[in-house]
Design goal:
The chain is α/β, with parallel strands linked by helices. It is built from nine helices and eight strands. It has one domain: NAD(P)-binding Rossmann-like Domain (Rossmann fold), CATH 3.40.50. Bound molecules: nicotinamide-adenine-dinucleotide.
Length: about 290
């Protein structure tokens, strides 16, 4: 143990496998007590299984750390509230929320069913909102009671959400939404002592193994030191940021920013929009290409 997170209390969602599991082990290694959440679903989000979360708890305890399992579906609003409650009841509070749970149902947009759209948007976007909402309410109550915590949220976006990815329209929309949610949550929750950032990880897991050539891809645990630092007290001045992690490289994502602009002084004539907009587009940086395009 390094002491970076000594005495801190954390929840990691979707921590039974893949990247979430690596985050839970890393936070525990740095001294955090961890609630290991996992609904135990298939890659496409089907079924439930309590054993992945229990196994990770076993690994943490065997290494001398403290952890408990939680089997909630993070997108179930009441279950997400109970998850926050479990951390508070078991360990006496909550300092760190790592939102990571999710699954994919990749399809070209024209083949995407309503059910696939709803399921993927629900698990990522509502799954981030539900835990963030209840943790935020807890931190606001603590702050108002004069016990402000030095709290951290680390959300999980994706290059698919930031740059776009062919065949992943639904997933890209959800992950772009998570980036936007991160900005608003950071601005709203600063007054309660909470920072909110997001990572865009890369790792060879069951999620990428079916879809990409993963032979040279980073490992889940390559992402977790960044999460551990963002979760630490040292990171209290960093908020509203998205950091991409690809193996040993970390990159600050610039996000949406106002670029070149023109003001007509009165409502635009449609025929004048073309030349004006083309001039601005020529001045603006070229957008990065969509993955797979
Ligand atoms: N692997 C990558 O390269 C990559 C890239 C960008 C973003 N991500 C994101 O990182 C996160 C982790 O992905 P991974 O590659 O480790 O996938 P994974 O499938 O290995 O792990 C995801 C875990 O989340 C759990 N989960 C799914 N739905 C849940 C729910 N409703 N409630 C609680 N737990 C649930 C699953 O049971 C699983 O254990 C996801 O949000 C994913 O979109 C991954």
């Amino acid at each position: 143990m390094t002491g970076l997170l000594d005495g801190r209390i954390a929840i990691v969602t979707g921590a039974g496998r893949g990247i979430g599991r690596a985050h839970a082990l890393e936070l525990a290694r740095h001294g955090a007590k961890v609630v290991v959440n996992d609904f135990g679903v298939s890659l496409a989000g089907e079924g439930t299984d309590e054993s992945p979360a229990a196994q990770v708890v076993g690994e943490i305890v065997a290494a001398g750390g403290e952890a408990v399992a939680n089997g909630a579906d993070v997108a179930d609003f009441a279950a997400a509230e109970a998850l926050i409650g479990q951390a508070v009841e078991t360990y006496g509070g909550l300092d760190i929320l790592v939102n990571n749970a999710g699954f994919v149902r990749d399809r070209m947009l024209v083949n995407t069913s309503e059910e696939e759209w709803d399921a993927v948007i629900r698990v990522h976007l509502k799954g981030h909102f539900a835990t963030l909402r209840h943790a935020g309410a807890y931190w606001r109550a603590e702050s108002k009671a004069g016990r402000q915590r030095d709290a951290r949220v680390i959300n999980t976006s994706s290059g698919a959400g930031l740059q776009g990815s062919i065949g992943q329209g639904t997933y890209s929309a959800a992950k772009a939404g998570i980036a936007g949610l991160t900005l608003v949550a950071a601005a709203e929750m600063a007054r309660y002592g909470v920072t909110v950032n997001a990572i865009a990880p890369v790792a060879k897991t069951r999620m990428t193994e079916g879809a990409f050539d993963t032979s040279a891809m980073a490992l889940p645990e390559d992402n977790s030191p960044v999460v551990a630092w963002l979760a630490s007290e040292d990171a209290r001045d960093v908020t509203g940021r998205v950091v991409e992690i690809d193996g040993s490289r970390i990159t600050v994502e610039n996000g949406w920013a106002h670029g070149p602009s023109a003001d007509a002084g009165a409502r635009w004539e449609a025929a004048e929009v073309g030349p004006a907009l083309r001039k601005l587009l020529a001045e603006a940086p070229e957008p990065e290409s969509v993955y797979g395009a």
